[in-house]
Design a protein that fits this description.
Elements lengths: L6 H14 L4 H13 L12 H8 L3 H13 L3 E5 L10 E4 L2
Antiparallel strand pairs: 1-2
């Protein structure tokens, strides 16, 4: 079971992490885009392709991978399905606080 999710609490935590300098601006930007792909009520099942996030933000795919890794390390997202491979599906994430 995923930790409890609250959109407002998640957004506040992101802002606080940015204010304290513990989260890079690019990672926070990726988080806000990732949020738009998640289920609004639960914060689960955000599964945009890395190329999609890169295009939306005007950055390279490698930058998106670094930002997603930073968000995982900081505890803002949990990887629930690893993407790629034969099926070519994107990775899936849950937003958590």
């Amino acid at each position: 079971m995923s930790p409890t999710y609250s959109l407002a609490r998640w957004q506040r935590a992101l802002r606080e992490a940015r204010r304290l300098g513990s989260l890079e601006p690019g990672a926070a930007h990726t988080a806000m885009w990732l949020e738009t792909f998640a289920d609004f009520r639960t914060g689960r099942n955000a599964a945009p392709a890395a190329d999609t996030l890169a295009q939306l933000q005007g950055v390279k795919r490698d930058t998106i991978y670094r930002n997603l890794a930073a968000l995982r390390v900081a505890g803002f997202i949990v990887l629930t399905r690893r993407g790629g491979g034969v099926n070519g599906l994107p990775s899936r994430y849950d937003l958590v606080i």
